Fold this protein.
Amino acid sequence: MAKAARSIFVCQNCAAEAPRWTGKCAGCGEWNTMTEESDAAPPPAAGLTRLPAGKIVALESLRDETDADLKRLTTGIAELDRVTGGGIVPGSALLVGGEPGIGKSTLLLQVAAALAEAGRRTLYFTGEEATAQVRLRAQRLGVAERAVAIAAETSVSNILATAGEGPTPDLIIVDSVQTLWTEGLDAVPGTISQVRAATQSLVRFAKAKGAALILVGHVTKDGQIAGPKVVEHMVDTVLYFEGDRGHPYRILRATKNRFGATDEIGVFEMVASGLREVLNPSELFLGDRLASTTPGSAVFAGVEGTRPILVEIQALVVPATFGSPRRAVVGWDSNRLSMLLAVIDARCGISFGQHDVYLSVAGGLRITEPAVDLAAAAALLSSILDIALPKNDVYFGEISLSGALRQAGHVPPRLKEARKLGFKRAILPQAGDVGAPDRRMEMLRLAHVKGLVEALGLQEKRKGA
C-alpha cells in the first residue's frame, strides 16, 4: 500500500528540505524562506529497485557533420545577437533575469516583433499582465502592427498545448517563469517545485520541437535569479539585464552561453519609444566627461567579453568627518577597493586612513575586470593630491599585493579603441604583448604602482604643495 503524501518545508533560496518549519534555513542561513510543499513521491524502497526495461537509442559519431552548420535566428537587434553569439539557436532555452521595471518585457516584445516582421512565428505568453497591457506597450514601441501572437496564461499544460497546435513556432516567450503552475503539484506558483517543473516541461518541449524558448526570471535582493541554481543549469543561456534607475543605459550581460562567449555585453538606452541600441558604448559612457579634467578622474580602457569599452573612473577623497573613515563604491567591488588602498599605503607611502573615499564607475556600468586597478589607483592618487591627470591618458593593468603591475589581456583592442576616441597615451603594465607599434599612440609601461606616482609627477607636486 502506497504511503500518503506528506508535507515538507523547502527553502525558496537554496532548495534545502526540512521535516518541519524553521525560521532560519539550515542550508543557506536565510530567514523566513521555508515554504510548505507536498512531497507526493514515495520514499525509496530498501535494497535494489527494479527499473523498467528501456529501449536502445541510436548512437551518432562525433565526426558526423550533419548539424555543423547550425542556423541561428537573427533578431535584427545587433546588441542582442552579439550577446547570444550571433543569434538565437533553434531549440535552445534562454533565461533572462533583471530587476522589476528594468526593461525585460520591453526588450522581449521588441525581439518578438522583429522576428515576426521577418516572417517568423512568435508566441508571447504573459503571466503578469493582461493582453490589453501588452498591446498598450506595443503601441508605445510602434510595433502594434506586427504579427505577434499573445496570450495571458499561466498553466504550463495550456501553454504547451497552444504551442503544439499548428506549425512549430520559431520563438516562444514566457513572462515570467515564477507565475507558472503545473498540475499535479500541490504548491503555489513561484515555489521551488513549481518553477523547476515548469522549466523542465518547457525546455523539453523546445528541445523536441526545435523552437527557441525565452524565459523571464525574477531576481532576488542580491541580484541573482530567484529559484534554485538547477534552473540555470537546465537552460542553455543565462542573460542578466542590468542598469541603474538613475541612468537611461541598460546592460545585457551573458553569464552562461553554450553557443557563444560568456561575459559578453550589449548596451541599450531606454528612450520614450523603447530600448535603443548603443553601437559605440565608449562614446556613451564618456559623453558627460568634462573636456578639462578635474582631480579624481581617470579613463579605463577595458574589455567586456570581446568588446573594448572605455569608461570613466571617478574618485573623491576628503578628510574624514567622523572617527571611522567611510568607503563607498558604485559599480566596483568594495573589497577590491580596500585592497587597493592598502597597497598604495604600503608601497607608495600615501595613506588614506584619515580620509573618506568615494569611488564610482560613471554611466551605471558595473566592472569586474581586475585590469581596472591601475585606473582606480590613478583616480585615487589624483584626488587625494588634488592634481588633475592628463585628459588624453588611458589606464589599464592589474595591481598585485606587492604593488607589481600584472599584464592585461586583449591589449591591441584596448589601444585601438583609445586611439579611435582621440586618446594619445596609454599607461599599462610593462609585461605583455601590445601588438604592432603605432606612432599615434604613446605608451608608458610600468612595472610597479610606485612608478605611476613618479611617472605622472605626483610625488614632486605633492612635495611642492
Residues 42-48 have pLDDT under 50 and may be disordered. Residues 192-209 form the longest helix (18 residues). Residues 118 and 365 are 33 Å apart (CA to CA). The first strand starts at residue 6 and ends at 11.
